[in-house]
Amino acid sequence: MSDLQNYNIDLLDIWRFEKWAFNDKRTSLPKQVANELLEEMISTNILGTTPFIRKPDESHFDYKSQKVYWDQKFSEFRADFNNDNPFYGDIIYTSGAMYSFLESCPVGIENEEFDLFFTIKLRQYHSKLLLISSYLEFHLENNFSNDLAEFKKWLSILMRQYSGSILNRQVVETTNDWIALKEVGKTPRATRKRIPRTINGKYDTFLFDSNNEKLRLFTLELNNWSELVQGLVKGGFIIQGTKSGTLKSLFSNKEIIRPNRMVWMGSLKELCWFIKYFTEDKGLVEDPGNDLWVITVNSFVNKKGEDIHPDQLRGARGENMLRKAQLEKILDNMFD
Length: 336
What we know:
Elements: H1 11-23, H2 31-45, E1 53-54, H3 63-80, E2 91-94, E3 97-100, H4 114-123, H5 132-143, H6 148-162, H7 169-181, H8 213-220, H9 222-234, H10 244-249, E4 262-263, H11 268-281, H12 292-297, E5 300-301, H13 310-314, H14 321-335
Parallel strand pairs: 4-5
Antiparallel strand pairs: 1-3, 2-3
């Protein structure tokens, strides 16, 4: 069963509830949606992680005993497998290895499928309608920075999109009641909108270390900036059409007005990796101190063109190490 008072979006939590609902013959997810959940579990929970067992190598000195254990586990997997039931077990088999679905798998708002998983979690409250208000208040504060107008608009779209397919009438009506009760432009004192912190230090954007001769030479060559932009665009990290000067302004220590902010196409976790490459990993820029994430959100918008809140970066999750390695390779080609 799911922990309904844990309002975070965790795929493992969702998976356990839906598995119970399916096996208990309750109203279960549409098969297409269940398969989407399964695919996201695989991509998020498996890529970059270690399988709990691999098919043994015949050259290994302990091959015979390893094969006995492998055959046993594979037989258990085959016995549980049911093509008509996407929740057939807690193990996935792929590429000669088995992975477990028994680890926490949190999903943040930067995930492209966040709206779907938010809705799947919301549907679980059909048996506890009184908790829907707390669930919505939690995400208003933690994922929408208490921007009530934006959250209400987003919720209204979800109600239209998923009513009848994922959400039943009671959940939709309860959510719509919550939306209607919110006064336009007013938020309860406990969830009043946080005012983004202003920059306190001497930096408006980042500034390359002036003592680094290699960096000085890099900045003099416009072609270097063009190559870096091309690599980041090709990797899906920044938007097609980004100008070299836009990227260069990130390291100019000059304020970037909102229309000129860079559009980050990757996840928020990937943006954190990008910034930390220059600050912590390589020490290529002067230390911005406590202004690190404020500078970052004043320099970037997300793929939808929306502002990013510093707290979203501080709490960004996601451990797709393949993407991290891809990003670092692009940067290493220019700076290492």
